[in-house]
Amino acid sequence: MHYNQDWMGYGIVGGIEAGVISALAGLLLFGLFHWLGRRNGWSYGPQIGWSFLLATILTVSGDLSDLFYFNYARLQSLQLLKAKLALVHDPDSMGLRVLCELLGVTVGIYIGWVLCEGSRRRGSSEHK
Question: Is residue 2 part of a domain?
Fold first, then answer.
């Protein structure tokens, strides 16, 4: 799903901005699924898996679909290519942005896991 990227920078700056958005989405979704998982007895596997899938769908899917489209679709004319490229923010750095978004989701979920694991360990050491 595309979100409005007109305000984002170009090149590595835009990639870092997209990565930060993806990291925040991953962190928030991991927090949500961790909360649900504690209530339903889930291990960390489903929590991480569902968080990664949903954060990827929400933040990475638009740029990733554009990346695949421009690499594999048969564009019938130069005018069609120009029209499709005009709809994309910074088409030159689309691959970098997808990489930063995927890394951002991973880092956000990792930070959420570290925070939840740390609070769990602190809680279990206080009961001894």
Answer: no
